[in-house]
Write a structure and sequence with these properties.
- The chain has 276 residues and is α/β, with parallel strands linked by helices.
- It is 34% helix and 27% strand.
- The chain is built from 9 helices and 13 strands.
- Strand 1 and strand 2 form a beta hairpin.
- The longest helix has 15 residues.
């Protein structure tokens, strides 16, 4: 039976500015959704709020997983329910090895001890599939990693944790052509009745490897248009000016305020309905 993640009329802000202005989106496991749009329209904000970042205030709306609201749940609770966010800017953590971090995350999300033999077997297999270096397990988390290695490491974590829904925030940035193909193929191989994916991207090249079932255009804090692969081609050829003309939308130019949370800082549920 497929799982369902619903974003219902979601509004959110930072102190200086309202960013999300009524986002509606429904996705199921087995589906790939892509969100595209100009800079500063709320795409990364949406991904952070789905995961429960306290850096934004949710003023109205809801997030439902299989019909149950998760809007008041903390980041770790959402992770245990099967949500995963691959960061646009992965953080480095000195003193914690990559393998120890992933094994601890597996135990935290499942609530069960992870057999060392089984972990090593799955970890080595995932590293090989992602063509990661053999010494990765003993290196500190993202410490000294290249931009491409950090992004592949996010996908490694996803493969090991096996979430129901993954939100990949510009996972293609910093990847060369070969790494992009490897990441794309690994993500695509996971899509099933047990796994769905939300991609946030600016570039068609990622969508050449991860074929979306639905493409959403996000402008001024809301999804204004949904379609199929034809939207990707139109965006690639014409940018977003045609959206302004077809829908009569004035595209805001200012960038959203960037607030990137480090690991371990998101253990508080986002505020809701103007709570203090």
């Amino acid at each position: 039976m497929s799982q369902v993640l619903e974003i219902k009329d979601l509004y959110a802000r930072v102190p200086e500015k309202e960013i999300l202005k009524g986002v509606n989106l429904t996705m199921r496991t087995g589906e790939v959704h892509a969100i595209m749009g100009p800079n500063g329209t709320g795409k990364s904000t949406l991904s952070s709020i789905i995961m429960g970042s306290p850096n934004y205030e949710v003023t109205s709306g809801d997030i439902l997983l299989n019909g149950e609201s998760i809007i008041d749940k903390k980041v770790d609770e959402r992770a245990r329910l099967g949500l995963f966010l691959a960061y646009q800017y992965p953080q480095s953590v000195a003193g914690v090895t990559n393998s120890d971090f992933i094994r601890a995350a597996m135990k935290a999300t499942t609530g069960k001890n992870v057999s060392l033999f089984k972990f090593i077997s799955e970890y080595d297999k995932a590293c090989a599939e992602l063509k990661m270096p053999e010494d990765l397990a003993h290196r500190y988390l993202n410490e000294g990693f290249s931009g491409g290695e950090k992004k592949r490491n996010e996908i490694l974590q996803m493969k090991m944790l096996k979430p129901k829904f993954a939100i990949l925030d510009e996972i293609d940035s910093g990847l060369d052509v070969d790494a992009l193909r490897i990441v794309g193929e690994n993500v695509s191989s996971m899509v099933s009745n047990e796994f769905g994916c939300l991609l946030i991207t600016h570039y068609q090249r990622l969508l050449d490897y991860i074929k979306p079932d639905f493409v959403h255009i996000m402008i001024n804090g809301k999804i204004v248009l949904t379609g199929g692969k034809e939207l990707i081609t139109k965006i690639d050829q014409n940018g977003y000016d045609w959206v302004k003309e077809e829908l009569g939308i004035e595209i805001e130019k200012e960038d959203e305020k960037k607030t990137h949370a480090i690991l371990g800082s998101c253990a508080v549920a986002p505020k809701k309905n103007n709570e203090k």
